C-alpha cells in the first residue's frame, strides 16, 4: 500500500522541540507553554473587547470577554506556564475598571458611583476631577477601593487564575498555587 501524501516543504521541518511552535504552543525548558505570538494575539483580542470606545453595555462586554477567556483557557489551559496568569488577571481587571470609568463620563457621575461603591468622599472627588487618562485613573486608590476585585467578580468578570487552576485540577479558591 502506497500513501499518496503531499508534503508541504515550507511547513515541514525537522528541528529541536524548543525551536518549534505548534497550534500556539511551544516547549521551553521541557515545559509546555503558549507561544509568544499566541499570547500577543490574546492581548490584542482582550484589548479589542475592553476598548474604551466600544459603545456596548458593560454586561455585553463582560459576556463576550467571558466567552473569549473560557475558550482561550480551554485551549491554552494545559500550559504549565503559571507565572503570568496573575498578571493577566490584574491587567484585565484594570482594563474593566478603565471601561467603567470611561462609561461614567462626567465628574459628578463618577463621584456618585464611587461613593456608592464605598470610596472615601475626598478620594472620590479628587479622582473624578483629575484630568489624567482613564487608564491612569483605573489604578488609583479611589477606583480600586470602589471597584474591588470582589465587586468585579459580582459583575461576572471571570478570573483567568481560577480558570487555570480549574484546568489543572487544583481546588477552587485554593491559596496554594504552583510556583514557576
Summed up, what is this model?
It is built from nine helices and three strands; from the N terminus they run βββααααααααα.
Largest beta sheet: what is the strand line-up?
Answer: 1-2-3
The radius of gyration is: 21 Å
Uncertain residue segments: none
Q: Oligomerization state of this entry?
A: single chain
Order of helices and strands: EEEHHHHHHHHH
Q: How many domains is the backbone divided into?
A: 1
Which labels suit this protein?
180 residues; mainly alpha; 3-stranded antiparallel β-sheet; 9 helices; elongated
Describe this structure in words.
- It contains 9 helices and 3 strands; from the N terminus they run βββααααααααα.
- The protein has 180 residues and is mainly α.
- A 3-stranded antiparallel β-sheet has the order 1-2-3.
- The N and C termini lie far apart (48 Å).
Topology:
Blueprint: E1 21-22, E2 25-28, E3 31-34, H1 36-49, H2 58-76, H3 83-104, H4 107-116, H5 121-128, H6 134-137, H7 141-146, H8 149-154, H9 160-167
Antiparallel strand pairs: 1-2, 2-3
